[in-house]
């Protein structure tokens, strides 16, 4: 029997002790004596969020298939336990063995959003690992960062020994071998880091230096050790049908955000929306074989006992075998009384038919993400959705019995005018009118419900908008006010509910997204002043953050509202995600010219991702 | 459509130990729903748009309590060999939960929760948290009292309650305190309430973490209110 790291007295005092006891169905227990590499895989947020993340489930399953490696899970202790652990000097532990993280060989963290950055420091601190990589010794685990945020790792470069750039399926096996061989020869931590920095996709920030110009922009970025690459090409798994995917994912005891079997049907997206980072990072689109997905669906449902399955991808409607897969799932799942939770599909006759089969039309709502109110603006962002398509989908949906619609937009997009913003309200109203025109009075059940939400646009690295000025907090709030006023002046204003996002957090996210190494000290300072769980609005302390920026002498506007020239060296330019900077520049110019670029299925636009030698780039086009 | 009458009612007995004592009742229910699927048990589902498994639990166990006698009832589309079903379920259990018996219930059996009349608990003390008084000696004195008055707090109110008629047995077993108390839905008594009264009687106030409490079994009453005959909940079933 395992001994728990926390005493009963503590476990009975804190919220949801199940977050910390491990032992879940399909969690992996190995004999300590039988393994020679201990690997802690961490999602630096609370258990319910971390356990819902597919990437960790994939890597956990993969690493535990490696001979001699035991991979365990670590999540951020919630604030109640965090306080107890600090007060009672309890070191952070991994869930499976309940052993201190400090004893592990590796601590890997997945970085899914910028607002988890102070939680990285929480994890290191509670584990008693020095926060700064350069202060670590032979006693400390090798700290690795992975996930989408590592495509600009510079703001957090001081905290990590290594970053793994790209998809995790490819380089962990060689890295484990390398570690073993160096350690068994009595090699040092530094020897390992130097060797690891030569592995494809691996970036060791200690060995790279940035020189700045007087204006604060980058003059040069280069390796300071011989034999290290000047640019790092992302890692990618080209054959998604014959690689690691968990047949037995871990099943949490408590309800988590994603409490279901998740089938990742493809990676990448053909669409090329100009604000979207994922759409560029994960190119080219690679589909999984439909027969593989069917087999995994059945096995995963059997091995977990989950009562729900969902499909995951950036744009599920673009998966070529979607109708076949959904037909299969509907058939299987109705027999086994399993629910299908659909990903957001493009609203058309097919998806409406599927939705009416798997969910209660009366209770469910339709989701459209036009992202911008006017057609001009949608052309700028290359969102292929036209008003005609939206209205056609909505009309069909209303005829099918739906009466609730959610609409998502962004504010603060490049070239945006007041008219573009007001169009958000106009489009919402058009959909409401369409309901009353389409559904006869006697068939209506109350008013149509339109929920219109806006978030603030944050320019991200590796997108055509990486050169764009971001709005200030004041800009954002005034734009939200404009939408609010415009909604109030619509005929159907009582049917439209308008929500907008917090502006403070968006500004901070903007700094981290395009930040350089200088930003790291602010994160450290804010953490020392008590910031953690910044992604949780109840714990987000904007005044402390502002204070930290001031004390470090870091100017927020430099990272957000500043105009960037086309020849500026960006902090992330040393990373090669496959898509070339030339292509992104061309797309930025197309955006300014309000020119739409066809998607990858229609035409190859020469983005650069074809170099990976597979996926959509090598398929015949329609 | 299967006829409701053709369903087989089955009662499952299980134990709950560390680390599962930290999992609350609602999550234990979810755990068993998933376990039924993993073990491929031919459980019956309700009709309707969102069918759910026909499953009910006898008496919710508080977080932190151990148990050797938890029960849940399910309905199955067809009977299955008890031994086989127990093995299959045990194969999909986690550390801390064991299936102890699987019995077919008579058609007329009431549901698990309504059947519960009493529960037996063993109470021991955490190391260093033993009472200051001689509890072995004082226990019989305490049980001889005419009335054991306590204040029972609910979310809305506080009311005085006499525990005495709700305690059917109170004794020392291997140095631990054993109590058999009312566990029916109308008069459920928490063992900590009895312990609190016992401590107060001896001039001490216990703290939350002093006790290690194990529910030894859950009972139904085959006798009358005046002359109860308590038997474990699975005694009314038979092997399949």
Q: What is the CA-atom radius of gyration of chain A, in angstroms?
A: 25 Å
Largest interface, C-beta closer than 8 angstroms, per-chain residues: A-B, 29 and 28 residues
Supply the number of structural domains of chain A: 2
Largest β-sheet summary of chain A = 6 strands, mixed
Name the average pLDDT of chain A: 95
Distance between the termini of chain A: 59 Å
Residues in β-strands, percent of chain B: 25-35%
**Overall form of chain B:** elongated
Low-confidence blocks of residues of chain B: none
How many domain modules of chain B? 2
Number of distinct beta strands of chain A:
19
- Model regions low in confidence, pLDDT < 50 over at least 5 residues of chain A: none
Q: So how many helices of chain B?
A: 5
Q: Helix and strand succession of chain B?
A: EHEEHEHEHEEEEHEE
Task: Give me the secondary-structure category of chain B.
Answer: alpha+beta
The chain-level structural class of chain A is: alpha/beta
Can you count the beta strands of chain B? 11
Strand order of the largest sheet of chain A: 2-1-3-4-5-6
- Overall residue-averaged pLDDT value of chain B: 93
Strand content of chain A: 5-15%
